[in-house]
Structures are given as C-alpha cells and as structure tokens.
C-alpha cells in the first residue's frame, strides 16, 4: 500500500513544478512583449518573492492542505501590495498595514490603532514588509490576541535621524488582550520572514517578545534610497490612528 505521506509529497512537488512553469512562461511573455525595464524589474521582484514563498512554505508545511492555505494567504499579501502601489511603484506604509488588517476583518479604530508619519516604500521593500505584516496579522488572528473578542493591536512607527547614515524607520507592533500567550514550539515561516528575510533584503533588525497578553515586535530598518523615505506634511493631516 502506498504511504499517504508519499502521495502528499508527490502532490506538493507537482504543485511546485506547475507554479515554477507558470513563472517561466510569464518571464517569456514579458520578454516577447518588450515590457519597459522599470515594469520588468518590478515583475521580477514579485516573481522572485513568490518563488521564495513557494519553497519556504513547502519546507515548513506538515501537509498539502496547510501548505495550500498558507501559500494562498501569502500570495494574497503580495498581490495586495501590487494593488496599493502608485505609478512609480511606491507604497504607503499606513496603507500596507491597514489593508492587511482589513483583509482579516480587523478594522482600524475598532480592534486596531495605527499611528505614524507618512512613509513611502520602494517596490521590493514594500513586498518584503507586506509579507512580514501578513505573518504578524495572520498569526494574531489564528493563534494570538486577535482570536479573542477583547484582543487589540497597535502599530506605531516613527522615523529618526541616525548620523552618520540614513534615517531609521522603527515600527512597533503590540498585541494586547490575549491570555497566556507563549512562544511557538518550533520556528516557522513567519519567524524566518521577520528575523531573516527582513535582515537580508532590507538590512532590518527585528526583536520579538511573547508577553502573556500578546506578541510584541519591533522592526528597525534604514530608510536608504532603495528602501523608502518619509514624506513631510502638515501635522494636521498626519495619520493619527483614526478610522478612515
């Protein structure tokens, strides 16, 4: 009798092969269509991110059903970034966070509070950070504070000068209202994204702390030209965590 685990592994391998083939066909179509370099570069970033997500998700999924469910959510996060970018490919940090929360039916002004200055992120930085935000949000909804009626999350960010060097963006994610929150028994994809992928792609430093009432996560990353920049604005129009 065939071992069900062998069938699952074979099915997962076939899914991976099909996705890789789709990526290859898309690359050929872009070449044949003579797509502008700027758009082609953005598409390459997206496809590279998707390949990373495909392989890392497969490595850490216990079964095909879990793999497909998590992969679908992560692909959704990547595609939401594409919808949120402007004509130059930049994305607004507030929009990235609020869109991810809204996708999980967590509304700003109710279970979520967002506060911070206007920050514009370059395409690749937006992709990586959006994936990190997806992991934080989905974990809070599935296993953490936001699984409870009294659960709340606060996302607060600030930009500070750092001489010598570029300004530093600090994003604090704080969950409250949980009960008996504990660190996971094993390292998962979300931790890899937050601690490894952000560091490798953006030069970020991430700290995670599992407080009894919810997760605390602080992300610090330099706002270099390839990452993004803050936008000067009238203080009266700054984001104040109000529901839009």
Automatic annotation (TrEMBL):
Catalytic activities: ATP + protein L-histidine = ADP + protein N-phospho-L-histidine
InterPro entries, sorted: HATPase_C_sf, Sig_transdc_His_kinase_HWE
The EC number(s) this enzyme carries: 2.7.13.3
Keyword tags: ATP-binding, Kinase, Nucleotide-binding, Phosphoprotein, Transferase
Pfam families, A to Z: HWE_HK
Domain of life of the organism encoding this protein: Bacteria
Entry GO MF terms: ATP binding; protein histidine kinase activity
Transmembrane helix in keyword set: no
Stretches assigned to the Signal transduction histidine kinase HWE region domain: 39-118
Protein name, entry field: histidine kinase
Organism: Methylobacterium tardum
Lineage of producing organism: Bacteria, Pseudomonadati, Pseudomonadota, Alphaproteobacteria, Hyphomicrobiales
């Amino acid at each position: 009798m065939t071992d069900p685990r062998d069938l699952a592994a074979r099915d997962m391998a076939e899914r991976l092969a099909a996705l890789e083939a789709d990526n290859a066909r898309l690359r050929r179509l872009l070449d044949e269509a003579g797509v502008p370099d700027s758009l082609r570069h953005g598409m390459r970033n997206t496809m590279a991110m998707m390949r990373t997500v495909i392989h890392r998700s497969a490595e850490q999924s216990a079964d095909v059903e879990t793999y497909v469910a998590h992969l679908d959510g992560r692909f959704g996060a990547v595609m939401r970034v594409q919808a949120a970018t402007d004509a130059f490919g930049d994305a607004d940090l507030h929009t990235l966070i609020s869109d991810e929360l809204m996708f999980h039916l967590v509304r700003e002004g109710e279970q979520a509070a967002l506060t911070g200055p206007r920050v514009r992120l370059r395409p690749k930085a937006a992709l990586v950070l959006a994936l990190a935000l997806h992991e934080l949000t989905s974990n809070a909804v599935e296993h953490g504070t936001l699984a409870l009626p009294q659960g709340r999350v606060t996302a607060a960010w600030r930009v500070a000068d750092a001489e010598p060097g570029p300004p530093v963006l600090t994003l604090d994610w704080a969950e409250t209202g949980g009960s008996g929150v504990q660190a996971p028994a094993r390292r998962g994809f979300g931790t890899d994204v937050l601690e490894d992928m952000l560091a490798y792609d953006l030069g970020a430093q991430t700290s995670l702390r599992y407080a009894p009432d919810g997760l605390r996560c602080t992300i610090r990353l330099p706002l270099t030209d390839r990452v993004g920049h803050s936008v000067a604005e009238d203080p009266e129009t700054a984001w104040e965590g109000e529901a839009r």
